[in-house]
Structure prediction request, 225 residues.
Amino acid sequence: QQQVKQSPQSLIVQKGGISIINCAYENTAFDYFPWYQQFPGKGPALLIAIRPDVSEKKEGRFTISFNKSAKQFSLHIMDSQPGDSATYFCAASGGYQKVTFGTGTKLQVIP
Amino acid sequence: DAGVTQSPTHLIKTRGQQVTLRCSPKSGHDTVSWYQQALGQGPQFIFQYYEEEERQRGNFPDRFSGHQFPNYSSELNVNALLLGDSALYLCASSFQTGGRNEQFFGPGTRLTVL
Prediction:
């Protein structure tokens, strides 16, 4: 049973535009929601993370919005750059830190 | 300060063989988790080691086993390899004692089963 649903599967954004990736979870025991960025041939790198006691977290051009009642969270990438082209995974964890990943969004930022 | 390291980088095996993958956690981390990432998919949790014991396991058969050493490094063993075991195997380390959930991933080992 997939516990973290992610959309869209792929995304093409113009340079300078806003990239938005959405995720939804089912397990209310989750208490930590990270986003990972993965380049081809590399391991996932932690980008930004949020806990359910806040509704928004911003780090530079990256913002997580969190809606606890709807069990949804999203990643916004402002002023998207070609260097942001990668696969992005939302994830969720609780308890002993097992991380459940979404299916990934392949982002392409075109000049 | 070195991050999470994994060896080897790439590995080619044939069906039925056995393989051992290795992971050294980030300095100061005491917990190691292993994930399998098939092409085009998100990582799937295999198991986690803390204090040299398997603490939690995902939906993987007993052919997948592991070990954690006193220096916190870890091994993943896969027996009787199947074609479907071809994937990127990722190791992630974290600091459990600190009560934080941040996991840092290594570059992975690309396993190809022929």
